[in-house]
UniProtKB/TrEMBL annotation, chain A:
The keyword Membrane applies. This is DUF979 domain-containing protein. Keywords: Membrane, Transmembrane, Transmembrane helix. Signal peptide: none annotated. It comes from the Bacteria. It holds the Pfam family DUF979. The keyword Transmembrane helix applies. The chain crosses the membrane at residues 32-51, 57-76, 97-120, 132-152, 173-191, 211-237, 258-278, 298-321. It comes from Dyella lutea.
From TrEMBL, chain B:
The keyword Transmembrane applies. This is DUF969 domain-containing protein. The chain crosses the membrane at residues 45-71, 158-180, 192-214. It holds the Pfam family DUF969. Keywords: Membrane, Transmembrane, Transmembrane helix.
Length: 323, 228
C-alpha cells in the first residue's frame, strides 16, 4: 500500500542526496542544512509516535535540530549551482523534442487528479493501492515519480540526471523552501501560547459596538490583520467570527451568516496576498522564479489586494444586512 | 490573559522589516512566544519538534523538482518561449488574463493542484510571458523582467484564491459551514459559495486591469526609448 510515509521517505532521500552533493563541492553549511533536514524528514514519523507514547526525548532532539537549521539558514548565501547545459544546447534540444516536452509536465496534474478522484477504487481483494489518509498528496508524489521517468524517456536521458537537476533547483530555492513548514509550526506555537486569543481579545476590546457598520468594518479589517499575522485566513476565520461576527453582527444586528462568512473569509484572502507569513504563496514562488527580492511577488499583489479589499468591504456593507 | 506572548508577533514584524533571514526570524518568534507564555525549555523543544514533524508534508513541492529539472535541462523553458513566438496573436495581456481565468475556473471545480509555481509558472507561464514581453521591448531590462515574473506568480495566486473560494466540496466553504454548524446555525455549502461569486468576478476584473496596465507600461517604455 502506498502511504504518505513513503512520500516523507522519498523527500528525506532526495534531501540527503542534495546534502551529500554540497559536501562534495565543499559547501559545508549547505551540506549540513540539507542533511539535518533529511534526518528531520526521515525520523518525523518515529518522533510523532514516540511523543504520542509519552516519550518526549526524540521530539526535543527534533526541536533542537529545527533551531540548528534556523541558525544555519543565514549562512547559505545566494550562491547558485552552475547550469549543467548551455542555452544553445537547450534551444537545440527544444527544437528537436518540441511539444513532447510538455507531456511529462502534464502527467503531474493528470495523475494527481486521477488518484484524487479514483484512487479509492484501486483495490484487489481488500488490498488497497492507496492509503486513504492524505491520498491526494500520495497521488501527487506518485505523479512526480512517474513524470520523472516519463521525462527521462522523452529526453532519452538517465532518470538519475533528474536528481542532479532537481538538486540544482532545490539549491536555487534554498531556505525559502522550508518556510511553509516552519510557519505552520509557528502557528501551532502561537496557538498553544495563547497569541491568537490575545489578538482576538485586543480586537474585541477596541471594538466600537455602537454601530453595525463600524462592527462590520472591524470584522473585515480584523480578518485582514489576523491573516497577515498568522499567514492563513483559515486560522483567522474562527477567531474573528467567534469574537465579532457571530455575537455582534449575526446575533445582535441580524446579519446574514452565509454572506458574512463568505465575504469575511475573502477579506482574509486579501490579507494572504499581502503577507510574507503566507510563505508557500508569496516567498517560495519568489525563490523559484529567482526574483531579486523575496518580497517581489507581494509587491506585484499589493494593488490587486487593496482594491479587492475595498470592493469586498463595499459588498459586505451592501449585502450582509439584506434579507 | 497573558499578553507577553504577543511579543512573538513583534519579533516577526521587526525581523521582516529589518530584512533578517526569514527562517531565523520565524524560529526566534516561536521561541519568544513559547518562553513568554511560561512554557519550559524541554516542553518548547518538544512542541517545535512535533509541530515540524506533523507539518512536514507541506514541503511536497520539492517532489516536483527532479522531473521539472530534467525537462528544463532538455529545453522545456526554451520550447515554451519558441512556442509563444509562433503564437503571433497572443499578446502578454491575453496570455496572463487567459491563465488567470483558466486557473480560476479549474479551482472552482476542485482542480487546484493542476497548476502552481513549480508545475506551471516557472517552466511554462514565466518563459512564455517573457517571450511576449520581449516582442514589445526586445531589450527588456532586468528590473522589468523581475516585475514580470512576479506578476506571473501573482496571477497564479489570485486565480487560485478567488476560484477556490467558490468550490463547495473543500477548503474555505466547508470551514465556514463547519464553524456555523458548531454554533447551531445550519447552512448549505452552496448558499455560502454563491456569495463568494461577486468577489471572484471582481478579482478577475481588478487583476486583469493590473495586467493590462503593466502591458501598457512596457509599450510606453519601449515607445519613448525608440523616440529618443
Amino acid at each position: 500500500m502506498l502511504r504518505v510515509e513513503h512520500v516523507h521517505l522519498l523527500l528525506a532521500l532526495f534531501m540527503a542526496y542534495a546534502g551529500w552533493r554540497n559536501l562534495r563541492e565543499r559547501e559545508a553549511w549547505r551540506g549540513a542544512f540539507w542533511l539535518i533536514l533529511a534526518a528531520l524528514f526521515g525520523t518525523g514519523g518515529a518522533v510523532l509516535d514516540a511523543a504520542h507514547a509519552g516519550h518526549p526525548l526524540p521530539a526535543q532532539l527534533a526541536g533542537l535540530a529545527v533551531i540548528a537549521v534556523a541558525l544555519i539558514a543565514p549562512k547559505l548565501g545566494h550562491r547558485r549551482p552552475a547550469e549543467q547545459t548551455t542555452p544553445a544546447q537547450r534551444t537545440a534540444s527544444a527544437a528537436c523534442l518540441g511539444h513532447r516536452l510538455f507531456l511529462p509536465a502534464l502527467l503531474i496534474p493528470l495523475v494527481t487528479v486521477g488518484v484524487a478522484l479514483g484512487g479509492a477504487k484501486l483495490q484487489w481483494h481488500g488490498w488497497q493501492l492507496f492509503d486513504p489518509v492524505q491520498m491526494t498528496l500520495t497521488g501527487l508524489a506518485l505523479a512526480c515519480v512517474l513524470a520523472l521517468f516519463a521525462a527521462a524517456a522523452v529526453t532519452r536521458e538517465a532518470p538519475s540526471l533528474g536528481l542532479l537537476e532537481g538538486r540544482r533547483l532545490l539549491d536555487t530555492m534554498g531556505w525559502a523552501v522550508l518556510l511553509p513548514v516552519l510557519l505552520a509550526a509557528l502557528g501551532q506555537v502561537f496557538t498553544r501560547s495563547g497569541v491568537g486569543d490575545a489578538i482576538a481579545q485586543l480586537t474585541t476590546d477596541a471594538l466600537p459596538t455602537g454601530s453595525a457598520m463600524a462592527c462590520l468594518l472591524a470584522y473585515g479589517l480584523g480578518m485582514v490583520l489576523f491573516t497577515v499575522i498568522m499567514g492563513n485566513a483559515f486560522a483567522a476565520f474562527p477567531v474573528m467570527t467567534a469574537g465579532i461576527g457571530l455575537p455582534l453582527l449575526v446575533q445582535h444586528y441580524g446579519a446574514n451568516p452565509a454572506t458574512l462568512g463568505a465575504l469575511g473569509m475573502l477579506c482574509g484572502y486579501c490579507g494572504t496576498l499581502l503577507t510574507p507569513m503566507a510563505a508557500n504563496f508569496n516567498l517560495v514562488p519568489a525563490a523559484l522564479l529567482e526574483l531579486r527580492s523575496p518580497y517581489g511577488v507581494i509587491r506585484a499583489q499589493v494593488v490587486t489586494a487593496l482594491v479587492l479589499l475595498a470592493v469586498n468591504l463595499a459588498l459586505m456593507a451592501l449585502l450582509v444586512f439584506r434579507h | 490573559m497573558n499578553g507577553w506572548p504577543l511579543l512573538g508577533v513583534a519579533v516577526i514584524a521587526l525581523g521582516f522589516v529589518l530584512r533578517f533571514n526569514p527562517v531565523l526570524v520565524v524560529v526566534t518568534a516561536a521561541v519568544t512566544s513559547g518562553l513568554l507564555s511560561g512554557m519550559s525549555v524541554p516542553d518548547l523543544l518538544a512542541l517545535l519538534g512535533t509541530s515540524f514533524a506533523s507539518s512536514r508534508i507541506l514541503l511536497i513541492i520539492v517532489m516536483t523538482l527532479p522531473a521539472i529539472g530534467l525537462l528544463e535541462r532538455a529545453g522545456l523553458r526554451e520550447h515554451a518561449r519558441a512556442w509563444m513566438d509562433r503564437l503571433r496573436g497572443m499578446t502578454l495581456a491575453r496570455l496572463l488574463v487567459g491563465y488567470l481565468l483558466g486557473r480560476q475556473v479549474l479551482s472552482m471545480i476542485g482542480l487546484q493542484s493542476v497548476a502552481g509555481p513549480a508545475q506551471t509558472v516557472r517552466p511554462l507561464l514565466a518563459p512564455m510571458a517573457e517571450a511576449a514581453a520581449e516582442r514589445i521591448d526586445p531589450a527588456l531590462p532586468e528590473a522589468e523582467r523581475d516585475r514580470l515574473r512576479a506578476l506571473c506568480a501573482a496571477t497564479d495566486n489570485v486565480g487560485l484564491f478567488f476560484g477556490e473560494d467558490v468550490f463547495i466540496a473543500l477548503g474555505a466553504v466547508l470551514l465556514i459551514q463547519g464553524f456555523y454548524s458548531q454554533h447551531g446555525i445550519e447552512l448549505t455549502p452552496l448558499s455560502i459559495a454563491l456569495w463568494a461569486l461577486p468577489t471572484a468576478i471582481a478579482a478577475s476584473v481588478v487583476h486583469g486591469v493590473q495586467i493590462a496596465l503593466f502591458q501598457r507600461h512596457l509599450r510606453r517604455r519601449a515607445a519613448t526609448r525608440q523616440g529618443t
